[in-house]
Write a structure and sequence with these properties.
- The complex is a heterodimer of chains A (119) and B (141).
- Chain A is 36% helix and 18% strand.
- By secondary structure, chain A is of the alpha/beta class.
- Chain B has a 5-stranded antiparallel sheet with strand order 1-2-3-5-4, covered by helices on one side.
- In chain B, helix 2 (37-58) packs antiparallel against helix 5 (111-118).
- The longest helix of chain B has 22 residues, at 37-58.
- Classes of the chains: A alpha/beta (119), B alpha+beta (141).
Amino acid sequence: MKISTVKELLDARVLCGEDQLGKHVYSACGCDMMSDVLAYVKDQAVLLTGLVNPQVVRTAEMMDMVCIVFVRSKQPTEAILTLARNSGIVVMATDKRLYEACGKLYYHGLQNDEMEKDG
Amino acid sequence: MAEPLVFHYEVDGSDFTSAGTASVAVKKSLRQLGLPAEVIRKLSIAMYEGEINMVIHANGGTADVIVTEDYVDIVLADSGPGIEDVDKAMQEGFSTATAEIHSLGFGAGMGLPNMKRYSDEMSIETELGVGTTIRMRIYMT
């Protein structure tokens, strides 16, 4: 699924990385506990979370994730966005709650295939 | 690469916000060296969890990454309180972290288990009131 499709499905606002909306994501992880995110490697994944601090960006970077979606209208600070820009990670914000946001992406085909790529 | 390459970092224990800075720096350096992506990912996740642990529990410490032809070693050393029961600490879900740490997205009791998960070998030396040294090795293949 293209990141631009994630944006449309979640009615999200892009906060940084507008130039990378054409990139693909192959799986997603919805979680507020970063150690749980770190436990299962997924390739080119999107991270959906209600947690807002710089460790979200570092966790995504360690996992080679390409996109972060902050749910429930959470607004990251400029410092968080700067970290994400430096790491080439797309950051978006949506008004949806975590459960609904994950459900929408899953329903539209972004399922949970760990380390699977379609080319 | 005849001589091992050594990266040394001081991990600042006073500021949770900056925790992980060393792991990000290591990841960038190892990418420039052209190490396999899977090795870099395993190493940086293991080191990141270790760094977070040092900040949460031990007021910081040092991190050394030693790159040889066949493997990468990570040595994390702190002068913190030590680990009272290592077997317990290795269980997924066991944590002594505070509610404040939970609210920051950590302290789920996954730190040490994740470090073991992503390293090929891991050893823990710890003494109460003296500190903890964790060594992890990740092979290139």
